[in-house]
């Protein structure tokens, strides 16, 4: 009797082990964490919307991969590196999370990707802008999707310098993202014969930009570049208009997300040109997805939302193709397969983790050009990916 | 005798806890418990409300983080140096602030800690808003790998026990008796011939050093030192922890830190994430209105009434 029990036990253990081995999915499920800013200045560009977009991708994929369910969990990083990295640590060490998406503020993402790389888990970066994640802080587990500062600087700054706007003043968000954007943009300006006449650095989530605007006003620059994002850009532009800066010199928003452009005064923002990784009203494919997103989320998607959907889809397809959710195998497949959907056009995921795809040079529409409140931008030109993004660094080649 | 048994039970619980709960969470809890105990030494036993203790927590964290990243020394030395620097800063700030009392003392400490905050915001070595990221945990004494969470937890537990013992020892020493005398009636302590400012100053320095010890340890646990630790919110949070747990009780701050950290941990991921500050504020109000001596203080009262 005892013998029988033992045999039964052994047989059942073997059965469980073999079924697990066949599927090769750890813990019997694929779990994606979405770390985003749920209540701060970036909540409109990648907050609950990034969770919704990730969930849409999971549903469109069928809710399961390799016969195992896909689960999405989310958390608020409060834009703080310590909060964000602690959540990510808890997820990968204690809650079987396989990959973390969302990832908004570059400061939080810097801390989070270090934890993820240590744990050999994949970082799917949708909305962070710093190029560090595929250059000086590159890692085999980083996947940087939507855009980065190099693409913004090449897309927006270069044409303006070439058109004769030589003197630049920066109002910069005082953390990783702002510093990176200012650095890359300054290089583009200097390389093309322009000069940077001054810099004012404002803390993240500044509400009163008046002192920075006054500095810009007295700088004698041709262009005031806003190297910030989210509601910071909205507030800075508002202050610029109040002080009459917009009549005196050009104001260039280096990173303007569609929901933020929507929140700006169209009389002030109208005519401003910027670079984006996605515009919802570009063609039928983008409209089809965006309308589904709008029905779920209630507002038009920012590029990070579309990026979150696209990269989640690519991640799930790679798991299916690799036959496992093991990070190394999945990353390899992700880099082999070409991303191709409404978001990723002429796209490749490079060996350094940078997703190179077509970017869009857009102009914010003036009030009389808008047919309704969601009609915000016009695509001026498409920038091919290899012109927008900087070439890969040899030390970040993880092939 | 009863107390001793109680300590043994608590120690056993702390030893087996990581097998049931996530060790990093427990380590965080212990770091904040130590921080709150250090703060309680000032508020509970000297009767001075410092509103700038975050400066010491953050200083310990940044110094230890910087040493771990740049100097190649072992973690116990980095923690020791972080603690010493925090203690030195505490000695300086104590000298300036203990001459004042009550709200003025609180304001002086707040102002000084804001100076520290601004230095850390602007100084290049801290990484500003990004924080100091990717601090290695290193090998304890060059031997034990702290990147293993279990090893890290027991190391933190040892540090906490040391800090707790030191505070316990301080309170129950003749020095501690003088502190309590100052709290109860400062003019009388002066008339007995004690130089009260020196006593306050030494207590402030010990408290600052232990807060620095907590910050140093926390940086190793999370491999990150950030502005959150030096922000005045943190100075406020430690007041909350101490009040909720029970001012002037040895276990109060530990319980208070446990309650607040657990709440933050479990609320931040859930539906109530956005309301966490409102909920904490509500608890604070209830605490002040309904049970002023905190969880442990009220418990002791009930215990004394029924069994004492």
From TrEMBL, chain A:
Q: Which domain of life is it from?
A: Bacteria
Q: Which protein, by its recorded name, is this? A: ABC transporter substrate-binding protein
InterPro entries noted in UniProt: BCAA_transport, Leu-bd
Question: What lineage does the source organism belong to?
Answer: Bacteria, Pseudomonadati, Pseudomonadota, Gammaproteobacteria, Oceanospirillales
Keywords for the protein's UniProt record, in alphabetical order:
Signal
Give the residue range of the signal peptide. 1-23
Q: Which positions fall inside the Leucine-binding protein domain?
A: 29-365
| Listed Pfam families | Peripla_BP_6 (PF13458)
Does the keyword field hold Amino-acid biosynthesis?
A: no
State if Signal is listed as a keyword. Answer: yes
UniProtKB/TrEMBL annotation, chain B:
Give yes or no: UniProt keyword Membrane: yes
Membrane-spanning intervals of the chain? 6-25, 32-57, 77-96, 103-123, 150-167, 238-263, 275-295
For membrane topology, the record states: Multi-pass membrane protein
Name where it mostly resides. membrane
Q: Where does it live in the cell?
A: Cell inner membrane
Q: Which PANTHER family match?
A: ABC TRANSPORTER ATP-BINDING PROTEIN (PTHR30482:SF17), HIGH-AFFINITY BRANCHED-CHAIN AMINO ACID TRANSPORT SYSTEM PERMEASE (PTHR30482)
Protein name as annotated: Branched-chain amino acid ABC transporter permease
What is the scientific name of the source organism? Marinobacterium weihaiense
């Amino acid at each position: 009797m005892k013998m029988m029990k033992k045999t039964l036990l052994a047989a059942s253990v073997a059965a469980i082990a073999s079924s697990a081995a066949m599927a090769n999915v750890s813990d019997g499920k694929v779990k994606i964490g979405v770390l985003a800013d749920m209540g701060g200045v970036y909540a409109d560009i990648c907050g609950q919307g990034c969770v919704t977009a990730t969930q849409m991708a999971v549903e469109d994929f069928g809710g399961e991969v390799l016969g195992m369910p896909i689960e999405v969990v989310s958390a608020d990083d409060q834009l703080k590196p310590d909060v964000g990295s602690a959540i990510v640590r808890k997820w990968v060490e204690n809650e079987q999370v396989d990959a973390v998406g969302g990832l908004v503020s570059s400061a939080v993402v810097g801390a989070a990707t270090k934890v993820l790389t240590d744990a050999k888990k994949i970082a799917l970066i949708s909305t962070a802008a710093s190029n560090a994640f595929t250059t000086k802080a590159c890692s085999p587990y980083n996947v940087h999707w939507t855009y980065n500062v190099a693409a913004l600087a090449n897309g927006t700054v270069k044409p303006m310098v070439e058109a004769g706007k030589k003197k630049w003043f920066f109002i910069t968000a005082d953390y990783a993202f702002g510093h990176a954007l200012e650095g890359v943009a300054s290089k583009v300006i200097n390389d093309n014969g322009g000069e940077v006449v001054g810099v004012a650095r404002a803390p993240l989530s500044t509400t009163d930009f008046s002192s920075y605007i006054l500095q810009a006003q007295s700088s004698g620059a041709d262009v005031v570049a806003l190297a910030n994002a989210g509601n910071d850009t909205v507030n800075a532009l508002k202050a610029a208009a109040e002080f009459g800066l917009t009549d005196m010199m050009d104001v260039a928003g280096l990173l303007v997300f569609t929901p933020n452009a929507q929140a700006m005064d169209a009389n002030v923002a109208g005519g401003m040109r910027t670079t984006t990784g996605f515009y919802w009203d570009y063609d039928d494919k983008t409209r089809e997805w965006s309308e589904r997103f709008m029905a779920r989320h209630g507002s038009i998607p920012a590029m990070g939302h579309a990026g979150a959907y696209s990269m989640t889809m690519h991640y799930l397809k790679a798991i299916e193709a690799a036959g496992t959710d093991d990070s190394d195998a999945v990353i390899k497949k992700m880099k082999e397969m070409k991303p191709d959907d409404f978001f990723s056009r002429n796209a490749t995921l490079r060996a350094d983790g940078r997703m190179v795809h077509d970017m869009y040079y857009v102009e914010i529409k003036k009030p009389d050009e808008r047919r309704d409140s969601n009609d915000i931008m016009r695509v001026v030109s498409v920038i091919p990916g290899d012109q927008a993004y900087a070439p890969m660094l040899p030390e970040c080649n993880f092939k | 005798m009863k107390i001793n048994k109680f300590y043994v039970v608590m120690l056993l619980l702390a030893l087996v806890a990581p097998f049931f709960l996530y060790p990093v969470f427990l380590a965080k809890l212990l770091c904040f418990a130590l921080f709150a105990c250090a703060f309680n030494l000032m508020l509970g036993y000297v009767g001075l409300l410092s509103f700038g203790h975050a400066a010491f927590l953050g200083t310990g964290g940044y110094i230890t983080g910087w040493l771990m990243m740049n100097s190649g020394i072992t973690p116990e030395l980095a923690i020791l140096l972080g603690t010493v620097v925090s203690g030195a800063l505490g000695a300086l700030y104590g000298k300036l602030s203990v001459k004042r009392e009550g709200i003025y003392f609180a304001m002086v400490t707040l102002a000084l800690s804001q100076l520290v905050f601004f230095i850390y915001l602007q100084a290049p070595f801290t990484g500003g808003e990004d924080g100091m990221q990717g601090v290695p945990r290193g090998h304890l004494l060059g031997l034990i790998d702290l990147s293993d969470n279990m090893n890290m937890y027991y190391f933190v537990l040892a540090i906490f026990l040391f800090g707790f013992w030191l505070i316990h020892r301080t309170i129950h020493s003749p020095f501690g008796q003088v502190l309590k005398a100052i709290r109860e009636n400062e003019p009388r302590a002066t008339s007995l011939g004690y130089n009260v400012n020196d006593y306050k100053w030494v207590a402030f320095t010990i408290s600052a050093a232990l807060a620095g010890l907590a910050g140093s340890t926390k940086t190793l646990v999370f491999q990150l030192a950030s502005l959150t630790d030096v922000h005045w919110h943190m100075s406020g949070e430690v007041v909350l922890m101490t009040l909720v747990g029970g001012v002037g009780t040895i276990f109060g701050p530990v319980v208070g830190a446990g309650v607040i950290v657990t709440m933050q941990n479990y609320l931040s991921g859930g539906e109530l994430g956005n309301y966490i500050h409102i909920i904490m504020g509500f608890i604070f109000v209830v605490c002040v209105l309904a049970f002023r001596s905190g969880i442990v203080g009220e418990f002791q009262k009930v215990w004394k009434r029924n069994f004492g």
